[in-house]
Every structure is written in structure tokens, then in C-alpha cells.
Amino acid sequence: MSEQNTITEQQQRQKAGKYLTFVLADEEYGLGILKVREIIGYMNITAVPQTPDYVKGVINLRGQVIPVIDLRTNFGMELTEPTEETCIIVVEISRGDRNVSTGIVVDRVSEVLDISGEDIEDPPSFGEAVDTEFILGMGKIGDSVKILLDIDKVLGSADLTAVEDTAEAAAQDEQ
Known about the structure:
22% of the residues lie in helices and 43% in strands.
């Protein structure tokens, strides 16, 4: 077996695992379950001035101020009003040597799937004009495909700085 095939098989095994799937605008996405801290119903979000459009604001979750990102805006999708199914997934994002809790607004949560490595393909290449770095892979589930996200890359380092600044400013305002 060539070294190229071994690397691919090893990468497939690393991507295998449990994924929380959710819906945004009729498309299904998945997040590694180990990144998910909790799922909460949609709640009042305090807007923070002078933040990027995709930053909805902050919430106070059991005394912790958590920034909230609207994935629809981040992905350039049309905004919709929250429904009974709209929820916030609190994820833990790696930032250097520390972790940051962030909420992401999704249309609805679907289910937790156990996806094997051989059912995960690399993201398609659309050329240099389209950045697919934030896509961990494409999970094949029966006849459907779930877009598996690398949440650390969805919110790139510049985005994370804006998110952290939002949370820190809001926490200082509450004191």
C-alpha cells in the first residue's frame, strides 16, 4: 500500500465519529459531537454595537456571557425569523491553547449520526475562487449528503477575535 493511501485512510479514520446534524435553509450540516457543549432553545440575544453582521450579540447562559453567531449570515444565506425549532448550539472552539464557548444559531437540530470514515469524502474542489477549507468532509448517509463542518475553521481566527472581543466587552458592561 502506498504512503498516499495510508494517509488518506488515516485521515478517514480521524474524521469518523458522531456528528450532531442540523438544518440551515433546507441543507443539512454536521458538527463533531465533541465540539458541542449543549443545545438551547432560541432566547433573547443582546445586540452588541459595532460588531460584524454575523455576530448576533451575546447571551447570559448561567452566568457566562457567550457570543452568538448567526450561521445563515456567516454563510451568506437569506435571514429568516426565528421559529419554534430555531435553537442555539453552544460549541467549544479551539483558540490557540484555550477554548472559547460560542453559540451558533441554526434553523433546527436534526439528530446525532455515527458516520464511518469510508462514508466521509473530501470536500469538492471549486477552484481557488471558492474557499472550502471550513468543510471537514461530505458525509454520505443513505441517499443524502451532510456537509460536515470544521467549526474551528468556520469561525476563522479574525472572526474568533471579533467574537472574543464581543464577549469580553459584554462581560465588562455587566460588571
